[in-house]
TrEMBL record:
The gene is psd. Is synthesized initially as an inactive proenzyme. Formation of the active enzyme involves a self-maturation process in which the active site pyruvoyl group is generated from an internal serine residue via an autocatalytic post-translational modification. Two non-identical subunits are generated from the proenzyme in this reaction, and the pyruvate is formed at the N-terminus of the alpha chain, which is derived from the carboxyl end of the proenzyme. Heterodimer of a large membrane-associated beta subunit and a small pyruvoyl-containing alpha subunit. This is Phosphatidylserine decarboxylase proenzyme. Belongs to the phosphatidylserine decarboxylase family. PSD-A subfamily. It is an enzyme of class 4 (lyase). The lineage of its organism: Bacteria, Pseudomonadati, Pseudomonadota, Alphaproteobacteria, Sphingomonadales.
Amino acid sequence: MPGEILDNQGRGEASWRWPAVHPEGRKFGLGVGVVCLVTAAIGWQWLAWPLALLTFCVLAFFRDPRRVTPQEDRFIVAPADGLVTLIQKVPPPRELTIDDGSGIRPLGTDPVTRVSIFMSVFDVHINRAPIGGTVRRVIYIPGKFLNADLDKASEENERQHILIERGDGLMVCFTQIAGLVARRIVPFVKPGDIVAGGQRIGLIRFGSRVDVYLPAGTEPKVLLGQRIVAGETVLAEVGQAALIEGVSQ
């Protein structure tokens, strides 16, 4: 994922820019926009104005802002924008703990820390790779469309597991979970692809959740209730498990 290098010593240039719209959303915006123009042309202003607002909302939902990703092997960055709603010790997804005959080393069954990030319809919905490495597995599982904020959504909702392995063998799994409104999970990667940390790897349409399973011995550097930014917020530091407390204010 080539891009401009910026650092904490002032190197590089930064300025605000209007976010691009991801190609996945342009067709939706174009479709609603065309209907808006047709209704305006025939004099149905009462319908054209709401459609104009809907066009703006659709394009805003699929916005794809640029992000600056910290380039440190010890960092695991957030794969999604949103609110940290759950931090729990749980076993890894069972689909990734079984040997599927592919030759890819399965995850262990011992509990690890799972960080759940809830994305509302107002959040950016482009998901990004938490680490750089090789995509080992992409497993889609059909299911329900329960409220993505519920704990059981991790086991019952439509979801997609993505497992990335770094060159040193470190594996990080994250799961894209559809919610009440989300009806499609769109991957940008497939097994065998090599990705950089912070690279765009998929999206979930219209409200959803992402679960990240941290490696053993690693605890998050984010707090319950904290808002985080995909590709930029350092979610965890490999091998670091110190308690961090915060105050809601």
